[in-house]
Specification:
Distance between the termini: 86 Å
Number of helices: 4
Shape: elongated
Structural class: mainly alpha
Oligomer: single chain
Number of strands: 2
Strand content: under 5%
Largest sheet: 2 strands, antiparallel
Order of helices and strands: EEHHHH
Length: 104
């Protein structure tokens, strides 16, 4: 039995530390996580430009605008993009009707 492996061949260590690579015999990085953030970061200037032009845009509207430019983006990917920059997208609530001025 190899060092660092149990009877079933699983790699010993903390959860998420990595998995064994049968081909190379080493340990590869943890599985899962955000693998497409580099793709979004490559279009950061475009995404931020769209947001600057339409600060009240929704994620779906931004996604559609990016698709028109040939950039594939999911709403969750956009959400994480803005989350990394601590940018929040909030719509303005409609104004309440005025109580001081009568309406017809």
């Amino acid at each position: 039995m190899e060092a660092g492996r149990d009877e079933q061949g699983a790699v010993d260590g903390p959860a998420g530390a990595g998995v064994g690579c049968d081909r190379c015999g080493g340990v590869v990085g943890p599985l899962g996580g955000d693998r497409r953030s580099q793709h979004m970061e490559g279009h950061a200037e475009t995404i931020l430009g769209l947001l600057k032009a339409r600060p009240d845009a929704t994620l779906a509207e931004l996604q559609a605008a990016l698709a028109e430019r040939g950039v594939a983006a999911s709403s969750s990917g956009l959400w994480r993009f803005f989350q990394r920059r601590r940018i929040t997208l909030k719509k303005s609530r409609p104004m309440r009707t005025s109580r001081t001025a009568p309406t017809s």
